[in-house]
Write a structure and sequence with these properties.
Residues 20-41 have a biased composition (Low complexity). By secondary structure, this protein is α+β, with helices and mostly antiparallel strands. It is 19% helix and 30% strand. The protein has helices at 2-22, 54-62, and strands spanning 70-77, 82-87, 93-98, 112-120, 126-129, 136-139, 143-147, 154-160.
Amino acid sequence: MLTILAMIGGYLLNQRQKDSASGSESGSSSSATTPSTDVSSGPPLLATEGTCTWHTQEMARDVGAVGTLSQVLRITTDRGSAVWICQDEVGNLYYHANKGGADAKWVEGQTALFLSGVERQPNGSFQVTARWDGTTFNVNSDRLQVTKKNTTPRVEKAVGG
């Protein structure tokens, strides 16, 4: 499975380089709040496994995501939350989590939290900060770490995908 994903990723990157060299993409500017739609300046595409939930697709579309979102990472924590890192078709990353898991009730702002502007860290984790209160969410395949301003980080261990 990983070999197939690597081959697809290599093919997509090769196509992107060819398109960029031929000048077939049109550039557009991006800001911190608007996802980039310029493939030539976007982040590299990561290996993905399937599409993200319809909840995430809708939220991302509302903030300008390009195309269908694919799942880069999914964990279920020991506190029962499900967390996804999703990528749009030009490499922009999104965080979406739901208390109680994937099958629990989704109420954005109450049980669910969607954030755009996720950045991949040098250690391979994904991090995003909520603009309204400065809470930082850092997730990898082993854990979710939530750090509110001036507090000790809270760590939720991953117990499943």
